[in-house]
Every structure is written in structure tokens, then in C-alpha cells.
Request: fold
Amino acid sequence: MPAATDTPTAPLVLGIESSCDETGFGIVRGTELLANAVASSMEEHVRFGGVIPEIAARAHLEEFIPTLQQALDTAGVTLQDLDAIAVTSGPGLAGALMVGVAGAKALALATDTPLYGINHLVAHVGVGVLDEVTGAEPEAVSGTGPAVVVGSGGSGDRPLSEHLGALLVSGGHTEILRVNRLTTDVELLGSTIDDAAGEAYDKVARLLGAGYPGGPVIDRLARQGNPTAFRFPRGLSAPKFVGTAQEPGKHRHDWSFSGLKTAVARCVEQFEAAGVPDEQIPTADIAASFQEAVADVITAKAVRACTEHGIEHLLLGGGVAANSRLRELLAERCAAAGIGLTVPPPRLCTDNGAMVAALGAQLVMDGVAPSGLGFAADPGQPVGEISLGA
Amino acid sequence: MLSGEVLARFSTTQTNTHAEVLAPAVQQVMREANVAAADLGAVVAGVGPGPFTGLRAGLVTARSLAFAWGLDVHGVMSLDAIAHPAAEDAWRRGVDEFVVATDARRREVYWAHYSHVGGQFQRLHGPFVTAPADVTPLPVYGAGAGLYPDVLFSVPEFRTTVPDAGALGLVGELSLRRGRGLLPVQPLYLRESDAKVPGPRKRAGTGER
Reply:
């Protein structure tokens, strides 16, 4: 394997993502995005109302080579041109991760290319360096889903702010991170202690008979409802969990959505027990009130964590970043707190290979040693483990 | 694998490390056999039946190697790798038909029913996944028999035999030369995922029903 002595200034990197139900291959040259091919098995999970790990893993195997081919064709490069390959090694679904890791190793072995096993969560932050997110590539910003950059901190010659935080909200994750240095030093400030926010959306959507995935269907339903109709709980907001800035409680920056989900269930059950027919249950009001509770508690806690940890610019990532109310309220509260906000375009917020490639390129440019071929997928890989050691 | 001779092989009894050890194992056998990618004619992979996660690790590895090297990739039914030496043994014993069985967990076995012609196996039926009691009553080769000695007529010398990559390669090479017996590189899971479609949510009672 070539030594890391001659570090390319803009390395050509392939990124592979298979931690959940998206098979993603992305190709970057430095911070320039060349290809972002994604195949999703989402349709196959609809009838179950959630991602079934075995079905997702089977789909990864079938989509692996076709999606890779698509990315190579789009970028107009061959495997032999690559300077490095990066693959999500965790966190994620074990069976799904293993397909990506085993395939990535085979590609790295066959082409004698350095391989990085990298952290899925940090990769979500990694998209923040791409030209079309920082605005360094003007044409891309006017695309279908432009990046939103609000407030201070996102401009200038540094693509990422020195005092950067990341809020990741998806079907599998709800986390707030402090990014001291993207390639070597990322710290978890808070996370959900039970369901991920997107998971709560799926469960509530099912409860309301609204469909799957929950995020978009609840968002749509909520637009016709009154967000103040019901007061649903904001988890872990009691003083005993939150404490004070000087004496923080155990869950000051953590979230919990299981109580909220139960509260919505009780609310629906009360209407049913009172004999209200299904079609007269105010599902739009319930959806709007639920969405308000989620957006409120996520943004309030995220902005507080930023303020108390010196974060001046926040990057939003994960599938739930597409949620209209979350974006709106987060922009409002970040602005009020003087925190800059970057929201990448939706196709870069949901799981994809481009983010893995983007972080991989940063690792190469920073001279971080590759992971070799002996590493294992780690379904519980901690945020601090940005790339795996050899 | 060259003209019916195994140049190098790797195996592990660890059942949960496929994703970690596979690529280094490929590296190792190529080094031992002193073979470069340019020397290879094809890649052959066992397509199962077998436990899902390990099977996928094998197939995605085979497909990716072949893709990157520009080689054809073929599947071999994994039980055939045991049938290959079993057929020779059966021939010597004067046994006409036999079964190959491996562990399918959950108190079941993966199995197939074979005959042989002059020591070369011919698959008659299968593969299947069933309870050991439902296996056709014939001499059984492979680790599946060793696990259920009360139910299956185990051939003692093959009581712990599992599919071996060397034998798999031999079967693949033989099939390539004959132009038959190869399978697409598609996993033979033989079982659906366990996921159940959730039933309709129970409505809260009004006491009137």
C-alpha cells in the first residue's frame, strides 16, 4: 500500500455508506463533489413501519456494485485513479455495516488503495467542507436544494468555523457534537437516551395512521393543524435533569422521546375511549403539537449546548434536517443567540457516500494514517473514534 | 486453484468474524500461492445456503474483487464443496446416494440429496432448510449430521466437515471446464427475514364492544 508520504492536495476519494437503509457511494476530489449515488431500500420497509435490518442488509448486497458503477460513471473516474477509499465502520446496523466494510476492503485490496474505516456521525459533519455547502462553488448553491447559511461564522476563507458544533437528527440519531478538529477531535455533548427523533416520528405516524416514513407525512399533516392544541411533554427538561450551567444535571444536553410518544398514544386513546370515530380524531392538531414539542426541545437544548460550549456556528445534519418546523425554529433560535447555522441540501443531509468521501479526503489531507484491512464494523462506534486505527 | 490443485487456502472456525478476516485472508492466500490478480482467471464464491451475515460478507467480497480486477465471478452452491470429497468416499464405500448437511441453527439443517457417477457428485434435490427429522434417510456427510447423531445417519469421518474454500474452488474450476454447474453470485438464504408486518393497532376500548 502506498505510504502517506506524498499527500495529494486534493485527493480523489471514494466514500461508501451502508449503516442503515441507504447504499451510498460518493466521490470527491478534495472538497469538490464529483458524484453522489444513493440507492435506498426505503420502499421495502414501508409495510413494516420501520427499517428491518435484515432486509436492509440484503438490499445493500444487491445495490453495492450497481451503485458503485453509477458513482464512477458520474465522476468519470476509475477505481485505479483513487487516492483513498473511506467506508462507514459505525455506528449503525451491524449486518448493514458489514456489507459496506467487507466490500470496501475488497475494493481497497484489489486496487492497492489506502482504506479508512470512519465514523458515520462525523461524516455527517464532513459534508460541511464540500464546496457546494460552503458556497465556494456558486452554481451548486442555486440548485434544487441550496444550502442555507445563516448568520456569522460560515464565511471567510476557512470552510469550517473554528468553533463548530453539529446537530444530527435522523431516524437513528439525535446528537449534538462539538467539533474541535474534524479529523481528530470531536466530542459528544448530548444525545437521545432512548428513541431517535426520526424514530418517534415513525411511531407517531403509525399511531395516527399517517404512513411511513414519519418525518415527511407528519410534517405535511402538521401544516393543517394547530401546534398549540395539545401540550405534549418536552423530555428531560425538568430541573433535576437540566441543572444549571454551573452545576449541570445528568441530562442537561440529552433528549428523550419515549415519553412524548407515549403521551401522543394516550391522547389518541382518550379520543377513542370516548367513542370519537377515527375520522373525527384531530390528527392534524396532534401532529402539529407533536412536531412542535420535538422541534422545541431539540432546538432549545441544542442552542443551550452551543452557548455553554463556545460554539459559534452550528451545522445541521441527518434526515430530519428536512423537517420544515425544525429548520425554521432552529434558524430563529440560532439567530437570536448569535450562532451561525449551516443546513446542507437535503440529499447531503440524509445518509450518503459523499459525506464519507468528504471526511475521507480531509483525513488524507491531514495525514491521518489509514485503517488497514483488519478492522471490524463497530455498530456502537463512539463519536470520538473518527477513523479507526490500523 | 490451478488445474485441479489447491495452491493455497484459508479457513477459520470463528463464525462471527467474516467481515474482518476475509480481505486479509485473500491477501494471505495470494501471497502463499505467489499469485497476482493478473494471473487469475475467475473468482468463485460459495453462495450458501448459510447464515446470512457471513454469506453476504463473502459475496460482496467476491463481487468487489471481480469488479475491481475485471474478472468473471461465479457462484458455487456451498454444500457441493462437501459433496465433492463425499462423492469419492461414497464411491469407495459402495454407497449410491447420500445427503450433505450443515448447521442452519434454530434446530434445523441446510441439506441436499446427491448421487455420484464414478466418484463425482451429482445433485438430485436441494438445497433445503428443514428440521433434521425431515432429511431424506441416507448416509449424511457434513457437520449437520454430527450435530444430530440420533436423527441422522452420520458418516463418522465427515461428522465435523464444513464447506472449505479449497474444495469450493475445485468444484468451481471443474464446473468452468465442463461449462455447467455454476450459479449466479446470488445468496441462497432459503429463509425470509423474520420481520412480521405489524397488525392494525388495537383501538382503545369504549366498553361497548
